[in-house]
Write a structure and sequence with these properties.
This protein has 315 residues and is of the alpha/beta class. The chain has nine helices and 13 strands. The longest helix has 17 residues, at 13-29. The relative contact order is 0.16.
Length: 315
């Protein structure tokens, strides 16, 4: 019998889109195998009311998928990179990443023409400390309320008037083909993306060396370089789930990778940031760690509570 590669995913429309793309990559890497998609319910999917930080922050959308992988109920776990804890679970490896989607955040307004057009004290729906702090740095009058649920739920709540605007990842909007809802694409240098934003990761068991090798051969190389730099940054930073942290690596012309990083206070009034470039053949994980050390030396540690067990990619 030919091997069947079981691809584990969450059940949302976006997660299923990602799983289908992962399925195509598996078929490209290993045409002889059969594939099937297995839906896994995560704590973050079951509990749509509790803020992510109060649910533990780390791996809310990841733990059940990793458990299924370790228990040999699936062979590949598909994750949004920004949901991954900054330290890989023992016995698991990142085998490949898909081509990166757009990194920006987008603003979807109920009536306003964009961020500058929002009324004073407008209520914004988002559960992301990173987004809140950076938006407050631009407009300190804005108010925020947590927003959970799948994309359709979020759009419905906006339409019902529960918020004046909501913030979402542009990659999600593009991948689901609902760009008509976008009011404004936010400048990614002003609203720095979460590390890993727009990246889809395929995770496998360390012992499954054949599958790892085949997937690794078809990984998107540029995205892999960016992912590694951003992952090194968070690995060293060890920011808790309530920290406002942005990080964006880009493969540039002339064989360079540029990494811009930022840590903010909750009110957006204080920010520590840095930007640097290295050749693509450098140790990019170490480069990311060095960038984190730079921020920590310049006061970033005062803006969040360090907690190794609570380090995560962020929203």
């Amino acid at each position: 019998m030919s091997r069947v590669i079981r691809i584990g995913t969450r059940g949302s429309r976006l997660a299923m889109w990602q799983a289908e793309q992962a399925q195509e990559l598996v078929r490209t890497a290993w045409p002889e195998v059969e594939t099937e998609i297995v839906e896994i319910k995560t704590q973050g999917d079951r509990d749509q009311a509790t803020p992510l930080a109060k649910m533990g922050g780390v791996g809310v959308f990841v733990k059940e998928l990793e458990k299924a992988l370790l228990e040999d109920r699936i062979d590949v776990a598909v994750h949004s990179a920004k949901d991954l804890p900054s330290r890989m679970t023992d016995g698991l490896e990142t085998a490949a990443v898909l081509p990166r989607g757009p990194v920006e955040d987008v603003l979807i307004c109920r009536e306003a023409s964009g961020l500058s057009g929002l009324k004073e004290g407008a209520l914004i729906g988002t559960s992301s400390p990173r987004r809140i702090s950076q938006l407050l740095a631009i407009r300190e009058d804005l108010k925020f309320q947590p927003l959970r649920g799948n994309i359709d739920t979020r759009l419905r709540k906006l339409k019902e008037g529960q918020y004046d605007a909501i913030v979402m990842a542009r990659a999600a909007v593009v991948r689901l083909g609902i760009e008509e809802h976008v009011t404004e694409v936010l400048d990614p240098t002003a609203i720095l993306p979460a590390p890993g934003q727009g990246i889809v990761v395929l995770q496998v068991r360390s012992e499954d060396t054949e599958l790892f090798k085949k997937l690794h051969e078809v990984r998107d190389v540029d995205t892999c370089l960016e992912f590694r730099a951003e992952r090194g940054f968070l690995y060293k930073l060890r920011a808790g789930c309530s920290a406002a942290v942005g990080g964006w690596a880009r493969v540039r012309k002339m064989g360079l990778v540029t990494l811009r990083v930022r840590v903010l206070s909750p009110d957006g009034g204080t920010a520590v940031e840095a930007m640097a470039s290295v050749p693509t053949n450098a140790d990019l994980f170490q480069f990311g760690k060095d960038m984190a050390s730079n921020l920590l030396k310049n006061g970033a540690a005062l803006l969040f509570i360090e907690d190794e067990e609570d380090a995560f990619w962020g929203n």
